[in-house]
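Anyone have tokens for Divergent polysaccharide deacetylase family protein? Sequence:
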Amino acid sequence: MGTDLHAPLGQGRPSKTKRSWRGYKAVLCAGVLIVCVIALSIYVIQEDDGLRRVAANGAQTASEGKPDPSKEADSADRAPQSATSPERTASGANIERIPTGDGNYVTKYTPRDRTGPLVIDAQRMGQDPRIAGQPNPDLVEETENGKLPIIGADGLRPMDQYARPWSGERGARVAIVISGLGLSQTGSQKAVQQLPAGVTLAFAASGNSLQRWMQEARRKGHEILLQVPFEPFDYPANDPGPGTLLTASSAKDNIVRLHQAMARVTNYTGIVNYQGARYLSDEKALRPVLQDVAKRGLLFLDDGTSSLSKTNSVSDAVKLPHAFADVVLDGQVQTQAILRKLDELGRIADRQGTAIGVAAAYDESIDAVRKWAEEATQRGIEIVGVSAIVRDKSEP
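Reply: yep, here.
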């Protein structure tokens, strides 16, 4: 009720014009809604009809695509045999559709012509780090001694498959081999975990937990060698250990010992001698052993401790990839002395392009190599696996 009692009755009420306008708006909204519903219904009906027509056309096209036997001969005569319809995919491959005599087409895929560098059979050098701890099943054979390395049916060698890739540049290259892994668990752990991946690790055939250490080392990128004991001049006073290859033994017995050592671990690129001055100087004893190493697609590293070694001449004769160590790094087991030897190794590499140094897995050796490798990289010296330096006369 209004608050002014003296105002004339009937004033202040809403006008009839305003009430009429509200009603008109309600009718208009209802009409628009009805029109939208009708339009949507018509659209759905038309789309459904269109889909039916597309389905019918697709069926008709499929039926037309079937060859008509009565027209095959004519179409074959009309289409020249050399006619092709080349296309190119987004990946760069060329596609050609070549007609055949029965009216069908054969699709031919060929690589696009390239002027840049090509990667050829990259799987033949190195392994995917995710599976580097597992042997390539095509490169092992099961024997009574265990799994032994072999050359694959396609000619792939273990020394190539398990090699550490390198840059291929012409700068100075140094290979450093730390040997004796597997003999000391703490020494093996330190070498595997602390040394740069470019350092080659040699596992003693008489060591422990070799497969486990090998797998960890390979996953970290290291190239692997197997260290086999050979007879020294002062044997048996100086005994390299069980399974030593002896000049007095038959070739057959020495091959058996070699295979027993080889079966202790997998994924290595080659063999390095442990001692063996007498054995390596005896060509008659050495030849059958190096022949077996060669036929299995491995390399041989002579640690360079014997000036009487026949490794070079025998390896050349049997086409065995091989190399000699230039410097024994740990003649003095002191960090500073080893660093001086590493500097000498670097100078040799600067002078002749490549150099190989060897040391045992002492704490001092590992510390010195780790420190020197960082400096050498800054000086432009590349630390590579032994396989990147070996002399390979088996290559064409």
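Residues 1-10, 54-67, 69-93, 114-123 have pLDDT under 50 and may be disordered.
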